[in-house]
Amino acid sequence: MTRWWSSSLLLSLALAFPGLGAAADWGVNVYGLSRHLDRAKARELHVDNELNPGLGLRYRVPRDERLDWIFDTGFYRDSGRNRAFFAGAGASWHATGHLRLAGALTFFKSDTYNRGRAGIAPLPVAVWETRAVSFNLVFFPKVPETNSIATLGFWLTLWPGGW
Q1: For the residues of 18-78, what is the DSSP string, one character each?
Q2: Full-model pTM
Q3: Do the strands 51-64 and 151-158 form a parallel or antiparallel pair, or are they unpaired?
Q4: All domains in the chain, ordered by first residue
């Protein structure tokens, strides 16, 4: 799958459901960066790439004034320098006016993780949100046989409706 094809697929999904935008918000995820908590081991295992560019979409549905449902999908270059795909769904709690604490159940596929097999994992996410942009932080825990290095991930979600 080429980079252009991946981007076209995501854009097509966004354009295919224009009526959904009235009830919720579409955002563009711009991936990112990662920080490996054991950098020496990451270098040893050749999973030390900390520049992880990619694109994705976030669909946010307000449940009430304190909780949103969130749905994400995207492609990015992972720590092993392979293309990774993921899709997830979860809930985002409004801890303060700008701080969101979220949890998502994610489906992922990459040659770097889980011996190249697709997998499912719960992930904690913290978000600092403004009208136009969300600053996202995710924690990928060390999980034997799936992910050898605990890692932090960073990306932006751009909200075109907030500009």
Answers
A1: GGGGGTSEEEEEEEEEEEESSHHHHHHTT----EEEEEEEEEEEEEETTEEEEEEEEEEE-
A2: 0.83
A3: unpaired
A4: 3-162 (2.40.160.20)
